[in-house]
Structure formats: structure tokens, C-alpha cells
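Key result, reporting period 2: structure in, sequence out.
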């Protein structure tokens, strides 16, 4: 008999190694041996067996009986944990490993993560709400009716063969058929598809088990994932998140206490912490709750959405002296809490110390922001996972103050949306409502937003969209204005009579998962990868007696492809990937010898404002590229205005070249531009982190709040206005300031408190820094501070 209570399973992948964890029934140390690329000899690790008493069966679990199950589902009651952190390996390589435990051995393989700069493809699966338990072996879940294809008829819920075979749920207009597979078989078949796709890792945003405090639920989860049913987690790592069910004691107290004094939520979380060891997050008390994993160019941030503060509940609304409740599609705010089942005070009274508030200003909130900043600076492709879907047309889609609130709504997590959009998050993956849904959230309607998925279809409920009443004959509530697709209402059930029996041919709600594939893709400069989101369902094929013959991997008609820029941001374009790529390809625009007006995306314009090359020729011309589509890639245009007095209004990454004439360049809201005036007296209005060359003539440079520009006046008497009614956030560098010819100017000097007496000139090596209030406004290269005098009006102008 094997000594493995739970087979070795993988966690915390990195480019140098991985963590291997397993549980045994005996207090015997074990050996982990790793062989593979770059190892001249096997790596051998010894594991120490550590008793995990929190995993022992309770009296209630030992006495439990389940109708329809004859054999005991309980295992040996000894739980010894083994964990080994494997390190020192090469990126993106496959390694063999063997665990020797007494007389038992286990063999498998794992693959290290690639480096962020050297990778070929990445595939991961996202699925939640498996909610495993032994009862799932005999439970056929309610199968709420969704969209039915024209000409199709679903079997009735009273006397059809389907109803007789699998049963029904509810009564009257709320009665519905049950699904054709038990929860256990549905999850098994779903995982068989997942395992056949050999993912690099698995995201599970919560509700792994039907009660975190219920040990048979955990046993069942690992039977599926690292045990007798299958052992996929022995080959690919899991990145889990806490769900509401992990905060539930089930037989052992539920959301309260049991007969032995256990507090269900703490008991459940204690078991979760025993099974999973996430990377550190800087707050030891919150470890495992939220964490970061980098897998090559991908960053996954896992959050804990279990507890928001201040605590809230439905009973706080609608009573005398209380705020009113809302109904229908009304929304007055996201609220602060995702559950009304227990409070922090209750939790901590039973010794709990690990609750992590997620609201603005909390430790978790600040951690998320710092990780997003770091990941964006490194050009990573960012994914977020947590349990409670913030945008949902399902059961848990309404805030606490709504008349149809479940008391567990995910709307408080909407507070993160602006942060996620700011840092270019590719997608947010959640569960909770036990449905398949995709939303695209662009609250300010600027064309840049975030994709949200509810992937709660692992192996438990198969819910549909919420309705205004309890019956299935009532209208849909349609609470989620950002919803783009649901399996419930966009994958119509197609029924046909086959050999005299109504059979589902295609469509409908089924157990499934989201497959995400990331591949290098560089059709034009600035695009480096593409992400394909594929909603997969496990479709059951039944015989004439409705017995399961097999299941097929099928794909819902909602595959989505996003392009990724060289900064790691995704491009959310309604045009689709092919049309978007076409938009980014070089576009040649030639104007006339006369006075021309070229505005990107104006009616009849040949310019689209992205990667255009624009020639205006002679005449007094105006070019404006700022009206390009709101995509992650902006600008990259080349503008050549020719002779005449021209105006160039540029956006990010543009290059604009003047010629003869007095030209104006407006880059106030742009960054990373390159501007060249050529001959003539040119004027530059500047944004951030650009370069501007005046050329011949008396040129004027006005810097804005951004700063960080590099300026060159060229020949002629030039004016450098280094502050204009506000101070730049970063110093601008002037590379060719000519004493006695050029001048430094400050607009709004009096309101800023700047004068000849408050300006400081600091020598920095061979350069001079112009400082006000301890902040450098400009750096003059090759200039000695002693050669400048702020009170000299031929050098400084305070306007």
C-alpha cells in the first residue's frame, strides 16, 4: 500500500526551480532526486516529515454518512507534510524527479519557468469553483435553462426521460433539469482535458473545496489533482486563491463554531495555509493570502478577496434610519465587504491573525500597487486573480445594499479597476457566481480597459444569469453593464431527436475552463506578443439511455486575442487582431504644395495617427496626430512639414521635422517624441521625456509639467523657458546654452515664488544645475555656475 496520502504536487515556479510538496501517512523522512539539463549529477534533497494535526478528521466527519455511497471516503488519519524547495536549475528546461518514501516511490517531471527575455510560448489554465466533496460523487447539479436555439426544445422538467434519469430541482416556474454528469465525473472529465493540454501552470481563483474546514473535501480535491483519480499537479504547478468556501467550516462550524469550539472560517483557512505555501509578500501574517509569481514575461498577482473593511451586511440597509436599498440595475457604489458571514472581531477572538483587508489604504492594497508598478517597469504581461468577480450578471453580482444581494457580492473589488487600467493589466480572473462570463470594463470610455473573466465552472454549480424574480419565466436582471458574453445567454442549446431520444447536440452551459496561450508575435514595431483567451467546455456525449459515452473538448464562440506591446501592455481594440495589425502598419500620407490640414482619423483623412509617414510639402500646413485610437500603442508617426510656417501637434513617440519657416511644435501631452525645427524662428511646447532641436534661428522652448526633456537651441538667440506657471516633475537638460546669446526664462515666476534671489546655481561636475526649493529645474551642460548671474536680465528673465 502506498505511503503517499497526497502525491507530490508543484508550487511556486520560477526560472531557477520549483517547490515540491507531498503528504504521507507515516512519520518517515523522504528523498527527492532531480535529474536533467545542466546537472552533472542528480540533486538529492532530504525532506523532514512534519505532522499536520489540523488535517485530522473531526468527530463529525468520522460519523458522517452520505446516501448512495457505500464505501468509506475517509483515508488514513495521519497527515505528515513534506516540502522541498528545488533551486539552482536552468530556465525553461524539463527535469525528472523521484520521491522515495519508505517502500513507495513516485516519478514525474516538471518544467522550470523561462526567462523573461527568452521564451517561446506559455499556456496556462484558469478555472475555479471545483468545490470538491464526497457528496459530489452522487450529486447531479441543477442545470438552469439559458438560451435555447431556434427550433430546439429542451426536455421538460416533469416526466421527460432526462428528468427521470437525472432528476430536477425546484418547483413551479423555478423548476429545472439537473445536469447529465455528477459533480465528480464533471470535474474529472474537465481535468482530463486540462491535463491533455499540458499547461505550464494552473490558476484556481478560489472555492477549491466545499468547505475549507471540511477535510473530506480536501481529500477529494487531491484525489482529482494529486491522487487516485489523476495527478496533473505533479507535472504543472498550481497557483490558488482563497475563496468564500475556504472560509467555511462545513460540518465543522460553517461560518460559526462547532460542538468542539472550532470557528469554521479560521479552521478552513488554517487547512488552506497547511496545503499551500506561497511566496513571501512582506507581511508574514498575510502569507499565502496574496502573492506574486513571475513566469517568464508573465506576472500573476493573486489577491485575497475574502474580507473587506469596514464589515458590512445586508441588514444595514432599508430599515428605519438606514440608507435605502437599491433595486433593478441601480448602482450607488461598490461597498466595502464581500461577505456578511463573520467579522474581523469574531475571527480574531478565536486566535486568527491572518485576515487581510483589500480596501484602499490597506496593507494588501498598497502591496498590489507596488507590485503593479514594479511589473510594469519591467515590461511584464500582468494577470490578476482573486475569487469574488467584481462584474457579474450572476448570483453574486450585486452590492450589499441591493434588494437581490446574496450578501457575498464581489462589487467592492471594483475599486481596483482604475489601478488595473493604469498599469495595463491584461485580464482579471475570478469565479464565485459559478458561471462562464467575460466582461470588458472601460469606465471612462477612453478605449483602454481591462478584461474580466468569471471561470467558476470547474465542477460544481452550472448557474445562469440572474433574473428579476425566482422563476425562470422572469426577465434577466442584466446588472453587469460591462458583460460581453456568457455561456448562459450566448451559447444556445441545440437539441435534436436522435434515435427517438432528445439529445443535446451543441451549446449550453457545461463544466469547463479558460485556456490562455501567449506567443511571441511581432508583425510591426512595438508589438511583441499575442494572448489568446479560449473558453473551453467539456461536452458530454450520451447514448440513447443517457449514459455517458465520452466527453469532447469544445470551444465556445468567444475566443479573444489581445496584442501585447513592448512595454507589456495589452491593446484592447474592437477591430480584432488582424485589423489592429493593419492599423499599425506604415501608412504613407502625401499632402499638396498648398496649405494643408492633416488630422488623424478626421473624416476623409488618410492618416490614422499610428505609424504614419506624413509629407506636407510647401505651404503653411497643420498636422495633428493626437486623435489616434485609444490603444496601448500610440504615435510612432513621422511628420515632415517642408517649407512654410507649419504647426505640428504630436502624440507619444512621434518624430516631427520642420524645414524653412517659423514652425510651431505642440507636444504638451506627449512623451518620448523627437522634434526638429530646421531653419526659422521655431516655437516648442513640450511634454515629457522628449528631445527638441531648434536649428537655425531664434527659437523658443516652453517646457510643461512633465520635464525630462533634452533641448538643443542650435544657432541663433534662443529662449529656454524652464518653468511655466508650474514646476516640471523632472529637470530638463539644455545641451548647448550659449552665454550672452541664449536666455533662461520662467513664466509665472511671482506666483511660483521664484526670483533672482531664490534661484540657486549648483555646480554638478562640468555642468550647472538651476535649483529652486531644493528641486532642479534644468541642467546646463558644459556651463560653469560662476559664469551665470540670476539677476542679469541678459541671462535670466522672470515674467
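The corresponding designed sequence is given below.
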Amino acid at each position: 500500500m502506498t505511503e503517499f496520502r497526497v502525491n507530490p504536487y508543484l508550487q511556486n515556479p520560477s526560472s531557477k526551480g520549483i517547490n515540491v510538496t507531498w503528504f504521507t501517512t507515516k512519520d518517515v523522512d523522504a528523498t527527492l532526486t532531480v535529474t536533467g539539463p545542466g546537472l552533472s549529477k542528480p540533486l538529492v534533497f532530504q525532506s523532514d516529515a512534519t505532522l499536520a494535526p489540523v488535517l485530522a478528521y473531526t468527530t463529525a466527519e468520522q460519523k458522517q454518512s452520505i446516501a448512495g455511497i457505500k464505501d468509506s471516503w475517509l483515508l488514513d488519519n495521519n497527515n505528515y507534510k513534506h516540502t522541498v524547495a528545488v533551486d539552482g536549475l536552468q530556465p525553461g528546461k524539463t527535469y525528472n524527479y523521484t520521491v522515495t518514501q519508505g517502500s513507495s516511490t513516485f516519478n514525474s517531471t516538471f518544467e522550470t519557468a523561462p526567462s523573461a527575455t527568452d521564451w517561446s510560448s506559455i499556456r496556462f489554465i484558469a478555472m475555479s469553483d471545483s468545490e470538491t466533496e464526497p457528496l459530489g460523487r452522487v450529486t447531479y447539479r441543477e442545470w438552469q435553462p439559458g438560451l435555447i436555439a431556434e427550433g430546439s426544445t429542451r426536455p421538460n422538467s416533469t416526466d421527460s426521460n432526462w428528468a427521470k434519469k437525472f432528476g430536477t430541482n425546484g418547483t413551479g416556474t423555478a423548476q429545472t433539469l439537473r445536469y447529465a454528469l455528477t459533480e465528480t465525473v464533471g470535474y474529472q472529465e474537465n481535468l482530463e482535458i486540462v491535463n491533455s493540454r499540458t499547461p505550464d501552470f494552473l490558476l484556481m481563483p478560489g472555492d477549491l473545496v466545499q468547505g475549507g474546514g471540511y477535510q473530506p473535501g480536501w481529500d477529494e480535491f487531491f484525489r482529482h489533482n494529486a491522487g487516485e483519480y489523476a495527478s496533473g499537479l505533479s507535472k504543472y504547478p498550481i497557483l490558488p486563491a482563497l475563496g468564500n468556501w475556504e472560509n467555511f467550516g462545513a460540518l465543522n462550524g460553517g461560518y460559526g463554531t462547532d460542538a468542539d469550539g472550532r470557528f469554521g472560517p479560521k479552521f478552513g483557512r488554517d487547512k488552506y495555509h497547511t496545503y499551500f505555501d506561497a511566496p513571501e509578500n512582506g507581511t508574514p501574517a498575510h502569507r499565502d493570502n496574496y502573492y506574486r509569481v513571475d513566469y517568464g514575461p508573465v506576472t500573476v498577482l493573486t489577491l485575497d478577496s475574502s474580507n473587506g473593511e469596514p464589515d458590512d451586511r445586508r441588514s444595514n440597509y432599508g430599515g428605519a434610519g438606514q440608507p435605502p436599498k437599491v433595486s433593478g440595475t441601480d448602482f450607488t457604489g461598490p461597498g466595502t465587504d464581500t461577505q456578511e458571514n463573520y467579522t474581523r472581531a469574531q475571527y480574531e477572538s478565536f486566535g486568527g491573525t491572518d485576515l487581510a483587508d483589500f480596501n484602499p489604504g490597506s496593507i494588501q492594497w498598497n502591496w498590489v500597487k507596488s507590485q503593479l508598478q514594479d511589473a510594469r517597469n519591467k515590461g511584464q504581461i500582468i494577470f490578476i486573480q482573486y475569487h469574488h468577480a467584481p462584474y457579474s450578471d450572476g448570483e453574486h453580482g450585486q452590492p450589499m445594499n441591493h434588494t437581490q444581494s446574496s450578501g457575498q457580492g464581489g462589487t467592492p473589488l471594483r475599486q481596483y479597476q482604475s489601478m488595473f487600467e493604469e498599469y495595463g493589466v491584461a485580464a482579471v480572473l475570478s469565479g464565485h457566481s459559478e458561471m462562464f462570463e467575460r466582461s470588458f470594463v472601460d469606465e471612462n470610455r477612453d478605449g483602454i480597459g481591462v478584461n474580466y473573466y468569471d471561470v467558476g465552472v470547474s465542477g460544481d454549480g452550472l448557474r445562469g444569469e440572474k433574473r428579476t424574480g425566482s422563476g425562470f419565466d422572469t426577465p434577466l436582471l442584466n446588472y453587469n453593464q460591462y458583460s460581453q458574453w456568457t455561456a448562459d445567454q450566448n451559447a444556445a442549446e441545440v437539441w435534436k431527436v436522435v434515435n427517438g431520444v432528445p439529445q443535446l447536440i451543441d451549446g449550453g452551459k457545461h463544466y469547463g475552463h479558460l485556456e490562455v496561450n501567449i506567443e511571441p508575435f511581432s508583425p510591426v514595431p512595438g508589438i511583441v506578443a499575442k494572448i489568446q483567451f479560449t473558453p473551453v467546455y467539456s461536452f458530454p456525449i450520451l447514448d440513447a439511455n443517457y449514459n455517458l459515452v465520452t466527453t469532447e473538448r469544445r470551444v465556445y464562440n468567444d475566443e479573444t486575442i489581445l496584442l501585447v506591446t513592448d512595454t507589456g501592455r495589452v491593446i484592447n481594440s474592437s477591430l480584432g487582431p488582424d485589423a489592429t495589425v493593419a492599423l499599425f502598419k506604415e501608412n504613407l500620407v502625401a499632402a499638396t504644395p498648398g496649405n494643408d490640414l492633416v488630422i488623424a482619423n478626421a473624416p476623409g483623412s488618410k492618416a490614422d495617427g499610428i505609424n504614419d509617414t506624413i509629407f506636407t510639402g510647401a505651404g503653411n500646413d497643420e498636422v495633428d496626430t493626437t486623435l489616434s485610437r485609444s490603444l496601448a500603442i500610440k504615435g510612432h508617426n513621422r511628420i515632415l512639414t517642408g517649407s512654410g510656417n507649419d504647426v505640428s501637434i504630436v502624440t507619444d513617440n512621434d518624430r516631427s521635422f520642420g524645414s524653412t519657416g517659423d514652425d510651431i511644435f505642440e507636444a504638451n501631452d506627449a512623451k518620448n517624441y523627437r522634434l526638429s525645427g530646421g531653419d526659422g524662428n521655431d516655437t516648442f511646447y513640450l511634454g515629457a521625456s522628449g528631445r527638441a532641436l531648434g536649428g537655425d534661428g531664434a527659437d523658443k522652448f516652453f517646457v510643461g509639467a512633465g520635464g525630462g526633456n533634452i533641448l538643443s537651441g542650435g544657432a541663433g538667440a534662443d529662449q529656454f523657458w524652464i518653468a511655466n506657471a508650474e514646476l516640471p516633475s523632472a529637470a530638463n537638460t539644455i545641451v548647448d546654452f550659449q552665454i550672452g546669446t541664449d536666455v533662461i526664462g520662467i513664466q509665472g515666476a511671482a506666483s511660483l515664488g521664484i526670483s533672482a534671489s531664490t534661484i540657486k546655481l549648483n555646480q554638478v561636475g562640468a555642468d550647472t544645475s538651476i535649483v529652486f526649493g531644493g528641486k532642479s529645474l534644468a541642467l546646463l551642460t558644459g556651463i560653469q555656475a560662476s559664469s551665470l548671474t540670476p539677476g542679469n536680465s541678459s541671462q535670466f528673465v522672470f515674467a
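The chain is about 10% helix and 30% strand. The domain at 1-113 is CATH 2.60.40.10 (Immunoglobulin-like). This case is discussed further under Risks and Mitigation.
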